[in-house]
Amino acid sequence: xxxxxxxxxxxxxxxxxxxxxxxxxxxxxxxxxxxxxxxxxxxxxxxxxxxxxxxxxxxxxxxxxxxxxxxxxxxxxxxxxxxxxxxxxxxxxxx
Length: 95
Prior knowledge:
The chain has a single domain (2-94), classed as Alpha-Beta Plaits (2-Layer Sandwich), CATH 3.30.70. By secondary structure, the chain is α+β, with helices and mostly antiparallel strands.
């Protein structure tokens, strides 16, 4: 199994757009082969070190991560989130 974790620091003026994108992405669960599960949500602590949006995806293996990264359901989401964020941090690891 592979865990793919991404956090986004969304530019303030785009937060409402990000919230809509989160809801839309949740509705697409089950459409990407090899994606076993994912969670996405917004931070509620709002500390100095907090990011605004977090995503955790569980994938079958490294190949499934590659499929996910380039899948037409995922690409528009990741592209736009990168555009409306001032910082994006990711980590991928095997369990």
